[in-house]
């Protein structure tokens, strides 16, 4: 079942045990995908361990932590039509990469396919799965699953050329909700995003995860995306909704302060989305007010 259509890209930072487990799972896939790892400046021997135990993996060592931009660096080396992103604490199920490639082959206007996320070791659905299945967005009749307004990098296969044309992940956003801006730009380029329930990714959250920092970045990046791409009224409405719903703590305060401090950059880079894309995002706004799966809640 070797499948030459998809390369898997993984970014990592000081999570050697989790990364080695993930690479072991990827090495066992029947698709035998090429794998590119960007080691974001790890100091725990990650790069040495990868080179020793997985010599077939293409290992990039930029020497510093690039955040999500480490994926951009890896995609420069991708020669396959599709690229699957994978976190160092997640891995794709056998056959799912091929299944996503089949959908992309079949539908030329489809830009990305997001898989079901199973939380390990319990084997339960991630809370975000219900929201993906029940997406309120209308899509064209040919779309093979629910239309999405964004995607989850750890569980998504994208067209490599579409990713490059859209500019990849923004270096400003780092990590934490960094997908939303790229997803909107993909939609503005005419691509559709979908969810495929029959494809799966497993996620066993790393113990090294800094949940507070990730939540802070999630709030900040949501605000940045909102003012970079949304018209003034929806942007103001979403900002007020966010202010009412996030935890009232230091992390939230810092997130709003960082977002406000970047106002000159935001105004300089602001590019409002086409009407048809903005109209889809407006349909998502009510669900986002009550979502329990957003990164910045709790």
Automatic annotation (TrEMBL):
InterPro entries to which the protein is assigned, alphabetical: Glyco_trans_2-like (IPR001173), Nucleotide-diphossugar_trans (IPR029044)
UniProt pathway: Cell wall biogenesis; cell wall polysaccharide biosynthesis
Pfam families registered for this protein in UniProt: Glycos_transf_2
Keyword set includes RNA-binding: no
GO MF annotations, alphabetized: glycosyltransferase activity
Taxonomy, superkingdom: Bacteria
Keywords, alphabetical: Glycosyltransferase, Transferase
PANTHER family: GALACTOFURANOSYLTRANSFERASE GLFT2 (PTHR43179:SF12), RHAMNOSYLTRANSFERASE WBBL (PTHR43179)
Family the UniProt entry places it in: Belongs to the glycosyltransferase 2 family.
Name assigned to this protein: Glycosyl transferase
Protein's organism: Streptomyces caelestis
